[in-house]
């Protein structure tokens, strides 16, 4: 009789363990689905933020163009831009248009050509360059510019 009771208790324990294991697998599957949704939502949010940022840059470009403050244009040669405003070289390097061996550009190329060849959008570059030029009429960058302009992502110290 005691043997039957022990077998019954053992069988109940096995059934409970099987049920708990099944619920555990279901919960793991649900967690994976939730993680997948979170990942997709984050990716969509990042894409949306990037699109918003690009639209903002386009609007800023159009505003500068409409106000007649567009001093650097896509048709200007890289060498001409740097010669007129030497501080623009740092901004161009920030967009990987010169500044290192892997992203060198020809000084005789127009800014639009260099941007297209390097897979860069022209409007953000023009906004950054024109903001720099507008804020530094004497070729002297103002103190607040580093926060507003894209600068190189690599700093070398010697």
Structure in words:
The chain has 158 residues and is mostly helical. It has 2 domains: 68 residues; 76 residues, SP0561-like, CATH 1.10.3910.10. The protein is rod-shaped, with a radius of gyration of 30 Å.
Helices, strands, pairings?
Elements: H1 2-67, H2 78-84, H3 88-94, H4 111-117, H5 122-135, H6 145-148
Helix pairs in contact: 1-5
Per DSSP, the total helix count is 6
Largest sheet: none
Bulk shape: rod-shaped
Work out the strand percent: under 5%
pLDDT < 50 stretches: 138-152
Name of the CATH first level of the largest domain: Mainly Alpha
How many domain modules? 2
Based on secondary structure, the structural category is mainly alpha
Mean pLDDT: 81
Tell me the total number of β-strands: 0
CATH topology of the largest domain: SP0561-like
Would you identify the CATH architecture of the largest domain? Orthogonal Bundle
Strand/helix succession: HHHHHH
């Amino acid at each position: 009789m005691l043997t039957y009771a022990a077998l019954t208790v053992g069988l109940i324990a096995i059934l409970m363990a099987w049920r708990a294991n099944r619920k555990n697998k279901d919960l793991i599957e649900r967690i994976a689905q939730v993680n997948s949704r979170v990942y997709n939502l984050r990716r969509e949010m990042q894409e949306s933020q990037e699109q918003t940022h690009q639209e903002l840059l386009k609007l800023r470009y159009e505003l500068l163009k409409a106000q007649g403050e567009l001093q650097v244009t896509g048709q200007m040669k890289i060498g001409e831009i740097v010669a007129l405003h030497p501080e623009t070289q740092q901004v161009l390097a920030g967009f990987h248009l010169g500044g290192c061996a892997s992203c060198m550009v020809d000084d005789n190329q127009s800014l639009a050509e260099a941007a297209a060849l390097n897979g860069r959008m022209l409007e953000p570059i023009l906004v950054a360059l024109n903001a720099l030029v507008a804020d530094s009429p004497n070729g002297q960058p103002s103190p607040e510019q580093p926060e507003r302009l894209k600068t190189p992502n690599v700093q070398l110290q010697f």
